[in-house]
Amino acid sequence: MKIIMITGASSGIGEEFTRQLDQSFSRIDEIWMIARNRRKMEEIAAGISTRVRILALDLEQDTEREKLQQLLSVEKPRICMLVNCAGYGLMGPFEKIPLQEQLGMIELNCKALTAVTYMALPFMVRNGRIIQVASSAAFVPQMNFAVYAATKSYVLSFSRALQEEVRGREIFITAVCPGPVETPFFERAQQYGETLPAKEKFCVPASQVVKDALNASKKRKTVSVCSMPIKAFHAICKFIPHDFMLEIVQHMYKDESKEGIQE
């Protein structure tokens, strides 16, 4: 049985991957949709032509990840593509965000992604592809987004290193590093702090991020960066010292704070 496995499939980028992969992969037996929200996945699956298996799992929990491992061991599917989208971010000063929520980011964005990748690798087919959703936040440390940016830096580094390890098996990994995306992400992310207005100007549709990511994956690129402004940001981060970048962001927050007081 040939399958595509998608985590975080109930909304945002994960939902969009589900829809686009349904249209672009014709020789797939099932799409395995993995997320906590069963009802939302059922709504999405109703519009999907490929047969769907809905796995309502909370990947933050070890016991839930074990259920996925058991299913893979029993079914022994041939995984043509793994898309790791599950994750979340929280903005605001580190000390103001509850510790449990910050550890949850690390658990889901890093530990769960690593675990699912590890589970899937023995079942990946030749020319199989893995897409790991990171973020442009991976390019440089970000104040008021400290833990999230660190988790996405992990995803980018892990993906690029693992690519070299599995290249001989003809498995190809692409880390997707978008800037702000028009998804429900910010509804949760801004509970404890708000993003800089400048970032909102660079928002792109999830459909474009996914289209670019699938194209990059098809071409076996290790990194996919969507939109010219974020590509420029990526290039700048390679040459300008991170201390200087952090100083610029700090000034931007100070300026924003002054404008708020004046209003």
Written overview of the protein:
It is a single chain. The chain is of the alpha/beta class and 263 residues long. It has helices spanning 12-24, 38-45, 62-75, 99-120, 146-166, 185-189, 197-200, 206-218, 228-239, 242-262, and strands at 2-7, 30-35, 52-56, 78-84, 124-133, 172-176, 181-182, 204-205, 223-224. The strands form 2 sheets. It has a 7-stranded parallel sheet, with helices on both faces. A two-stranded parallel ribbon has the order 7-8. Helix 4 links the parallel strand 4 (78-84) and strand 5 (124-133). Helix 1 packs across helix 8 (206-218), helix 3 (62-75) packs parallel to helix 4 and helix 4 (99-120) runs parallel beside helix 5 (146-166). 37% of the residues are buried. Mean pLDDT is 91; it is low at 257-263.
Average pLDDT across residues?
91
Query: Would you report the number of β strands?
Result: 9
Distance between the termini: 60 Å
Largest sheet: spatial strand order: 3-2-1-4-5-6-9
Topology (SSEs and partners):
Elements: E1 2-7, H1 12-24, E2 30-35, H2 38-45, E3 52-56, H3 62-75, E4 78-84, H4 99-120, E5 124-133, H5 146-166, E6 172-176, E7 181-182, H6 185-189, H7 197-200, E8 204-205, H8 206-218, E9 223-224, H9 228-239, H10 242-262
Parallel strand pairs: 1-2, 1-4, 2-3, 4-5, 5-6, 6-9, 7-8
Short recap of the structure:
With 263 residues, this protein is an alpha/beta fold. It has helices at 12-24, 38-45, 62-75, 99-120, 146-166, 185-189, 197-200, 206-218, 228-239, 242-262; strands at 2-7, 30-35, 52-56, 78-84, 124-133, 172-176, 181-182, 204-205, 223-224.
